[in-house]
Specification:
globular, Putative deoxyribodipyrimidine photolyase, DNA Cyclobutane Dipyrimidine Photolyase, subunit A, domain 3, single chain, lyase activity, 48% helix, Serine Threonine Protein Phosphatase 5, Tetratricopeptide repeat, Rossmann fold, five-stranded parallel beta sheet, 5 strands, binds ligand DLZ, Crypto/Photolyase_FAD-like_sf, binds flavin-adenine dinucleotide, 23 helices
Length: 510
C-alpha cells in the first residue's frame, strides 16, 4: 500500500493531519511549485519568495526526518504546471493506492481537489485541518440559528474551549473579556518602536529570489530587502522577538498609524502562522505566558490573543460557512473600478501613499492601514468588491482567500450586508488625523472639506453616508451620523456632495 501525500505551500507544519499514521518507507510526500498556484493572482514577489523558500526548507526538513519527498521546483517549462498534473503524474509513477491531503484553505482549489477522485482514478482522502482551533463543523454549530454572527461571542467560546487567559474558576483573567477600550493611543514616537525581526537570506532563499526576479518580474512589489523567516526555527525566533520587544506595547498602539514607522508594535507573524511555520495556539500560549510572567500587560496580551483566537478563527468560519456565494456579494451595489494608484502608490493622499508604498516594499501593512486607510478609501469610493478583494489577495505575504475575503468583502466593504460586522468602518479624515501623524505632511488639508485642497476622505465620507441612507439609517450604531448629517445646512450638504461627486469622477487624479 503506497499513499501519495500532497502537502500544499501553506501546509508547512510537521504535525499536519495528512502525515498522521503515514509510513515513511512506503509513502511518498509530494510538494510542488507550480505556475497555476503562483499565478492565480498577481502575488507580491516577496510572498512568492517566502512560500517557495519555506517550501524548499520544509521539504529538506522532511527528508532529514526520514520521509521520501518528491519536490518540483518552479520552472516555466515544467511539463506539469498545476497541482493536479503533478499529482496525476506521481500517482502513475508510484502506482499509488490513495492520495491523502489536508483540506486546503481556499474554495477555488478545494473545488479542484474534490474532483480528483474521478479525474485521477484513485481515492482521495481529504483530512480536516487540525491547526485551526475550531473545526468547520464546530463553527457551523455555533452559528446555527443565530441571526447575526458576532466575533466577540465566538471569541469567548474559544477562550473557554482553550482555557487561554481563564482563571481556574472559569472567569476571564483581569475580570474582563475584552480590554479594547485601553487600546486606542496615538503613537508620537515614544516609546521607540522595536526594529522588526529580520533573517539574512540563505543560499536557498537567494536562489529563489533570483528565480522570482527572473520569472515573475511583472508581479507586484519587490524582492529587495527580503528578510522574512523561511523556517520554523526562525519563525519561532520572530515570535520570541515580538514577545520580548513589541508585545508590551501592542495593545496601547494597536490602532496607531505612523508616517515614519512601517511596523510599530505589531507582531508580523501572520505570514508564518498562515503558511504553517507557526502554530496559532502555541503563539497564543506564548503570549499568555508573557502575561503570567509579568512581562506584558493584560490589555496587550488579551488584545493580541483576541486577534488570533477570535478574529482569525471567526473569519475562517465565516468563509467556509458561506462560500462560494460569499465571494459574489455586493450589497452596497458598488460599480467603480479600483484606481491605478493602488498599484503604484502614486497619490497625493499621504496616508494612502504611505500604506501602499509600505505594501509594495514589505508585502505587509498593519491592520489599521488595511482597514482604515486603503480599505476605508475603497469603501467610501464605492469600489467593486471583487477588484479590491483581488488587490488585497495579491499584495500581502499573509494573503489567502479564506482570511482575505471575509476581511475585505465583509469587514471593510460591508458587501455582505452586515453579516460579519454590525456597522461599516467608514471614517472621515479626522479619524486618520487622530490616529496618525500623516495629515501634517499631506498635500490635502484635513480640516477642510469642500475646497480643492480639502482631504478627499471628508467629502467622500458624507457622500457615503448620504448615498447609503437606505441601508444604514435604521442601524442604531449609525443614528448619530445621520443626525449630524441632517442637521448641517442644506448649502453645506450640497457643497459636500458636489465636492464628492467631483472626487469620484476624478479618482485617478487624487
Ligand atoms: P498583529 O497585529 O500582530 O496581530 C496578530 C495576529 O492576529 C496576526 O498575525 C493574525 O494572525 C491575527 N489577526 C489579526 N487581525 C486579524 C483579522 N482581522 N483576521 C484574521 N487574522 C487576524 N490577515 C491575514 O492573515 N491575511 C490576509 O490576507 C488579511 N487581509 C486583510 C485585509 C483587510 C482589509 C484587513 C482589514 C485585514 C486583513 N487581515 C489579514 C487581518 C490583519 O490585518 C492581519 O492579520 C495583520 O495585519 C497581520 O499582521 P501582524 O501579524 O503584524 O498582526
Ligand atoms: C499561494 C501559493 C503559491 C504562490 N504557490 C504555491 C505553489 O506553488 N504550490 C503550492 O502547493 N501552493 C502554493 N500556494 C498556496 C496555494 O495557492 C493555496 O493558496 C493554498 O494551498 C490554499 O490552502
Amino acid at each position: 500500500m503506497a499513499n501519495l501525500i500532497l502537502i500544499l505551500g501553506d501546509q508547512l507544519s510537521p504535525n499536519l493531519s495528512a502525515l498522521d499514521g503515514a509510513d515513511r518507507n512506503e509513502d511518498l510526500v509530494v510538494m510542488a511549485e507550480v505556475h497555476d498556484e503562483a499565478s492565480y493572482t498577481n502575488h507580491h514577489k516577496k510572498k512568492l519568495v517566502l512560500l517557495f523558500s519555506a517550501m524548499r526548507h520544509f521539504a529538506d526538513h522532511l527528508r532529514e526526518d526520514g520521509w521520501q519527498v518528491h519536490y518540483q521546483r518552479y520552472h516555466p517549462d515544467n511539463p506539469h504546471q498545476s497541482l493536479e498534473a503533478v499529482v496525476a503524474d506521481q500517482v502513475r509513477q508510484l502506482n499509488a493506492d490513495r492520495v491523502i491531503t489536508t483540506e486546503c484553505g481556499e474554495w477555488r482549489l478545494h473545488e479542484q481537489i474534490s474532483q480528483w477522485h474521478d479525474r485521477l482514478g484513485v481515492p482521495v482522502e481529504i483530512r480536516p485541518d487540525t491547526r485551526f482551533i475550531a473545526s468547520k463543523e464546530e463553527f457551523a454549530d455555533w452559528a446555527k440559528g443565530r441571526k447575526q454572527l458576532r466575533m466577540e461571542f465566538f471569541y469567548r467560546e474559544m477562550r473557554k474551549k482553550t482555557g487561554l487567559l481563564m482563571t481556574p474558576e472559569g472567569e476571564p483573567e483581569g475580570g474582563q473579556w475584552n480590554f479594547d477600550a485601553d487600546n486606542r493611543k496615538k503613537w508620537t514616537g515614544k516609546p521607540p518602536a522595536p526594529a522588526p525581526f529580520q533573517v539574512e537570506p540563505d543560499a536557498t532563499t537567494r536562489e529563489v529570489i533570483k528565480l522570482v526576479d527572473e520569472h515573475f518580474s511583472d508581479h507586484f512589489g519587490t524582492t529587495d530587502d527580503f528578510h522574512f523567516a523561511v523556517t520554523a526555527e526562525d519563525a519561532q525566533a520572530a515570535l520570541e522577538h515580538f514577545i520580548d520587544f513589541a508585545l508590551p506595547c501592542f495593545g496601547d498602539y494597536q490602532d496607531a498609524i505612523s508616517d515614519t514607522e512601517d511596523w510599530l508594535f505589531h507582531s508580523i507573524l501572520s505570514p508564518y502562522i498562515n503558511c504553517g511555520l507557526l502554530d496559532p495556539l502555541a503563539v497564543c500560549e506564548a503570549a499568555a505566558q508573557a502575561w503570567y510572567a509579568g512581562r506584558a500587560p493584560i490589555n496587550a496580551v488579551e488584545g493580541f490573543i483576541r486577534q488570533i483566537l477570535g478574529w482569525r478563527e471567526f473569519v475562517r468560519g465565516i468563509y467556509w460557512l458561506n462560500m462560494p456565494a460569499y465571494a459574489q456579494e455586493n450589497r452596497l451595489g458598488n460599480t467603480r473600478a479600483l484606481p491605478w494608484f493602488y498599484w503604484t502608490g502614486d497619490t497625493k493622499m499621504r496616508c494612502m501613499h504611505k500604506a501602499i508604498d509600505a505594501t509594495r516594499r514589505n508585502a505587509y501593512a498593519h491592520h489599521i492601514q488595511r482597514l482604515m486607510v486603503t480599505g476605508n478609501f475603497a469603501l467610501l469610493a464605492g469600489i467593486r468588491p471583487e477588484e479590491i478583494c483581488d488587490w488585497y489577495l495579491a499584495v500581502y505575504a499573509d494573503a489567502y482567500d479564506w482570511v482575505e475575503l471575509p476581511n475585505v468583502l465583509g469587514m471593510v466593504m460591508h458587501a455582505d450586508g452586515g453579516y460579519l460586522g454590525s456597522k461599516p468602518y467608514a471614517a472621515s479624515g479626522k479619524y486618520i488625523q487622530r490616529q496618525s501623524d500623516h495629515c501634517s505632511n499631506c498635500h490635502y488639508k484635513v480640516n477642510k472639506a469642500t475646497e480643492d485642497d480639502a482631504c478627499p476622505f471628508n467629502a467622500l465620507y458624507w457622500h457615503f453616508i448620504d448615498r447609503h441612507r437606505h441601508e444604514f439609517a435604521g442601524n442604531p450604531r449609525m443614528g448619530m451620523m445621520y443626525r449630524n448629517w441632517d442637521k448641517q445646512k442644506p448649502e453645506r450638504r450640497e457643497a459636500l456632495l458636489r465636492r464628492a461627486e467631483h472626487l469620484l469622477a476624478n479618482l485617478e487624479q487624487l
